[in-house]
Design a protein that fits this description.
By secondary structure, the protein is an alpha+beta fold. It is built from 7 helices and 13 strands.
Length: 266
């Protein structure tokens, strides 16, 4: 795509995040954009933040469930960047006014001991390279309008990819587990909001094994000349639906043997 257009869109997304006013769907304003174009916009937006002093702490994988892929007419996940200012403490507070339309999902986070650079990364390579896993909550946001009121048009994959795969925050649980100590397909979680169960899920919903999502990411990043580094945090994809967050809401995910993770929006 034209570099000037990519820079303009990246700047508009940055302003939307700063002002709290989402921009028009890119799929409507720029119907010619491809998924690769959207990743170029994402890259430029992330580079803008890094130039301001932010630090890349990891990556997230999104759209890992079959239902979400079918709803967007795609057959693979997407990915975004995790920056240092996106991390919130387990049991701590999250400022609701920092976001436009925050939603919360349940995830497994992989923390890498070794780098992973594609191509050819397998599930077993991921398990061998992982130092530990932790329960996590991902906070999503929408710097691009989720629904266009005049037309009723909803976001497409181009919109979500350019919008950093909707990534806006992460809360890591305080308990860690080694990857070979648990059957990751059968990790389950119960998500409560204000002590009411809102969602339950099993990690097999993430590409049949959450480590497959990390392998997919390492191989996909190779296409763009990138990889995963030791020490990075990788969110492997949600196995619950996203729940909107309001001021005063307390989110608590119970992973049983893997511990819990909690945050409160203020």
């Amino acid at each position: 795509m034209d570099p000037t257009t990519a820079d303009e869109i990246a700047h508009a997304l940055d302003e939307a995040e700063r002002t709290g006013i989402p921009i028009q769907q890119l799929s409507l304003a720029h119907p010619e954009l491809s998924v690769d174009d959207a990743y170029e916009v994402q890259r430029r937006w992330v580079e803008t933040k890094l130039a301001r002093g932010r630090v890349l702490r990891g990556r997230k994988v999104g759209l890992t469930s079959r239902a979400m892929q079918q709803s967007l007419g795609i057959d693979e996940p997407d990915f975004g960047a995790l920056l240092d200012d996106m991390f919130f403490d387990d049991g701590g507070t999250v400022p609701r006014d920092r976001f436009i339309f925050p939603r919360v999902e349940v995830e497994l986070a992989f923390v890498l001991a070794q780098p992973l650079h594609g191509p050819g990364i397998s599930l077993y390579d991921v398990l061998d390279a992982t130092r530990y896993l932790a329960p996590a909550l991902e906070i999503l946001d929408a710097r691009v309008q989720m629904r266009d009121e005049p037309t009723g048009h909803t976001r497409t994959i181009v919109d979500t990819v350019a919008d950093n795969a909707a990534d806006a925050g992460v809360v890591l649980g305080s308990q860690a587990v080694r990857p070979h100590e648990v059957d990751l397909r059968w990790v389950a979680a119960v998500l409560t909001v204000n002590e009411t169960v809102e969602e339950t899920g099993v990690a097999a919903g993430v590409l049949n094994h959450p480590a497959r999502a990390v392998a997919w990411l390492a191989n996909k990043l190779d296409r763009y000349g990138l990889g995963l580094d030791a020490g990075q945090v990788i969110l492997s994809g949600s196995f619950t639906r996203a729940i909107p967050a309001r001021v005063g809401d307390t989110f608590h995910a119970d992973f049983r043997d893997l511990g819990t993770v909690t945050c409160r929006f203020v």
